[in-house]
Design brief:
Among the domains are: about 150 residues, no CATH class; about 180 residues, Serine Threonine Protein Phosphatase 5, Tetratricopeptide repeat (Alpha Horseshoe), CATH 1.25.40. It has 18 helices and 28 strands. Strands 1-28-27-26 form a four-stranded antiparallel beta sheet. Strands 2-3-4-5 form a four-stranded antiparallel beta sheet, with no helix packed on it. A four-stranded antiparallel beta sheet has the order 6-7-8-9, with no helix packed on it. Helix 7 packs across helix 13 and helix 12 runs antiparallel to helix 13. It starts with 11 loop residues before the first helix and ends in a 14-residue tail after the last helix.
């Protein structure tokens, strides 16, 4: 059969790729291979690849995208030709536990790690074993390799270790091997587990590590000294006991200096005094953007978060201008000393002037500026307001997101979105509302509702002291509203909460301080906040769920979900743009082809699915989820459900209609 007659080249991405290979394609035709909104709107199932006998836990494209590797609970790695949909190699890895990660180190070398605690590398052509390391004392969940150094691999294990493996040297698993890059037990305590790891493609010295908490650790490996493997000649259990004996007491050799690591975490979590809350958080995946400036994090029992690793700031509940104003007010016995008149008559902004762009107050300080919105944005605002009045807060947030994307300098849009977020009440919504209030105040310091909503949101977070400071500022800044019924009620709630807080000791915080090192507590206290978040998926059942950038410009984000769907978000607005049914139970893996819009997904089923933009022939994609909003709402409810109900729900998902449950090895310990 000739190339043109091969059915695999008849349509879709394969046809476009074949045309590009032949050279009979111009720039306009080539642009069809990029990730755009129109392409996502046409995204559909291209092919199902069958060959595994268990859950497919990981996928990996080689450098040019000519080969797709998949690894499974069946202990095999299959190398696929993604264009002809056929197997190239079926490799028996030698693992005795479920494989969780596979990496191409070169066109011929494939590395894997598994639940048996081993890391292996072998030649796909000859089958020769190049590395067999059993230094880990727990399941090894993820591998990472730098694109410019194929000889080095990093592995993340549930024994709390990040190990570095060098294929250029022979390796023996004993205590003389200095291959420990990071030991999380030293600082996190004896229950530390490493869940995922990633290397910055632009700055390979930067290593991101996710663990069984909500902090992502970014290390500068140039400043780290490799440590020896403690207890290397002992049995696995005894070796773990040796390392756990001094867990939480710090790094004895100071192999990782303070300046070599930065922590990132969502602000509403990192500022929570009691971190031992249900559901337990764990970082299931970390990924760098193509330019190496951003870090995408899939947080278990939470949302997907984006961090700017160069310009992120610490979370702030009370901005400095409020603190300075209140300090001046108290020092002056009711009259602020910093030049701010309580009635706003002098037209100054208050504080340090960072809370407003126009710097004027406008008469009595209660008049909100009227921004002339473009007609399309005004229509979006009215639509969102109607949705809020009808109680459809999630849809209202989506519309406000769209309006802000078109008009990002309008205070009322941020303030209205804050109100909708507080009413919706999904995980992290109240804190996101606080950020919106500050953004609105920065755009228009006279916006009364933003100031009041700020104090109210802080009270909803049970931060009574911070709410008291913001409400005091509000009452001084806008005296005509100080005696309103809503303000009086909020002040009463704050006073009651302050009295209760002063009489109750924080035992949970004291217990946490005993189990972690001093450096760990310092790093957590200085954790940097997120820049964007993406909501709608559910990540509670498995601890290998991915989230990845789509396209060279990272304009879209994709992640799997416990409801068997693949979610795709707009990077700019944070809105869901496409939901596709990718598995009968759970989608764990979403990996984009390195040079075209060809997605590979996998999950609990023993199937690898390929997705590409379908032809514009009017045919509907049967796997699309039409009501993305309802799916997102159901997922958020599921993540906040009772643990017993969640367990029963997951059991039912595992069994499905087939009558036999899947292997529990796909699920976290």
């Amino acid at each position: 059969m000739g190339r043109r007659e091969d059915p695999a080249f008849a349509k879709g991405t394969v046809r476009l790729t074949a045309a590009r290979e032949r050279g009979d394609v111009d720039r306009q035709f080539q642009s069809r291979l990029t990730v755009t909104r129109s392409m996502i709107d046409r995204l559909g199932l291209e092919k199902e690849l069958h060959g595994h006998m268990g859950c497919v836990n990981c996928l990996e494209w080689n450098k040019d995208g000519s080969v797709l590797a998949s690894a499974s609970d069946d202990l095999h790695v299959i190398l696929w030709d993604p264009y002809r949909y056929r197997q190239l190699h079926n490799i028996a890895t030698g693992h005795t536990g479920n494989i969780f990660s596979v990496k191409f180190l070169s066109p011929d070398i494939v590395a894997t790690c598994a639940a048996d605690g081993t890391v292996r590398a072998r030649s796909s052509a000859s089958g020769a074993a190049l590395l067999e390391c059993a230094c880990h004392c727990g399941r090894v969940k993820r591998l990472a390799a730098a694109p410019d150094n194929p000889h080095l691999i990093c592995s993340a294990g549930e024994d709390g270790l990040i190990l570095q493996h060098d294929l250029r040297t022979s390796h023996t698993c004993n205590s003389d091997s200095p291959n420990v890059l990071v030991n999380l037990l030293n600082h996190m305590g004896r229950h530390a587990e490493a869940k995922c790891v990633a290397i910055n493609p632009r700055r390979p010295h930067q290593l991101a590590v996710g663990a069984n908490d909500f902090y992502v650790r970014l290390y500068d490996t140039r400043m780290i000294k490799l440590a020896k493997h403690q207890g290397g000649r002992m049995r696995r259990y005894d070796s773990l006991q040796v390392r756990s004996a001094r867990a939480g007491h710090g790094d004895p050799d100071n192999n990782i200096p303070r300046s070599a690591v930065h922590y990132f975490a969502p602000g509403h979590l990192s500022m929570e005094p009691n971190e031992h809350t249900f559901p337990k958080k764990a970082t299931t995946y970390v990924a760098f953007s193509h330019d190496g400036n951003e870090l995408l994090v899939n947080l278990g029992s939470e949302q997907v978060y984006l961090f700017d690793i160069n310009s992120a700031r610490r979370p702030v509940l009370v901005e400095s201008f409020i603190i300075q104003h209140n300090h001046g007010y108290r020092e002056g016995e009711g009259k602020p000393k910093n030049g701010t008149a309580t009635n706003g008559a002098n037209g100054t902004n208050g504080g340090n002037g960072t809370n407003g762009g126009n710097g004027t107050n406008g008469g009595n300080g209660t008049v909100e500026s009227q921004v002339q919105l473009p007609e399309n944005v005004r229509d979006l605002k009215e639509t969102a307001n109607d949705l809020v009045n009808k109680g459809n807060y999630s849809a209202a947030v989506q519309v406000y997101n769209q309006a802000i994307g078109s008009c990002p300098d309008c205070a009322i849009l941020f303030s209205n979105r804050a109100a909708a977020l507080m009413r919706r009440g999904w995980s992290g919504d109240t804190y996101a509302a606080i950020k919106d209030c500050y953004r609105a105040i920065a755009l228009d310091a006279r916006h009364v509702k933003s100031h009041f909503r700020l104090a109210k949101a802080l009270m909803e977070l049970r931060r009574a002291r911070e709410a008291h400071e913001c409400l005091l500022y509000f009452r001084q800044r806008f005296p005509k509203h100080a005696a309103s019924h809503a303000v009086v009620l909020l002040q009463k709630d704050i006073n009651v909460a302050l009295e209760q807080r002063d009489t109750q000791p924080d035992e949970a915080e004291a217990e946490e301080n005993q189990s972690t090192s001093v450096l760990e507590r310092q790093l957590r206290a200085s954790a940097l906040d997120y820049s964007q978040r993406f909501l709608g998926h559910c990540n509670t059942t498995t601890d290998i769920k991915e989230a990845n950038f789509l396209g060279p410009d990272a304009n879209f984000i994709a992640a799997g979900s416990d409801d068997g769907s693949m979610f795709i978000w707009s990077r700019e607005s944070g809105n869901i743009v496409r939901v596709l049914r990718g598995d009968e139970s759970i989608v764990n893996c979403v990996q984009l082809h390195p040079s075209m819009f060809l997605l590979a997904t996998s999950g609990i089923e023993a199937v690898v699915r390929l997705w590409s933009p379908r032809p514009e022939d009017g045919t509907e994609e049967p796997r699309v989820v039409r009501d993305a909003g309802a799916a997102a709402h159901a997922n958020q409810q599921r993540m906040r459900s009772d643990p017993f109900e969640a367990m029963l729900f997951n059991i039912s998902y595992a069994g499905g209609e087939r009558g036999e449950p899947h292997s529990p090895a796909c699920r976290p310990t």
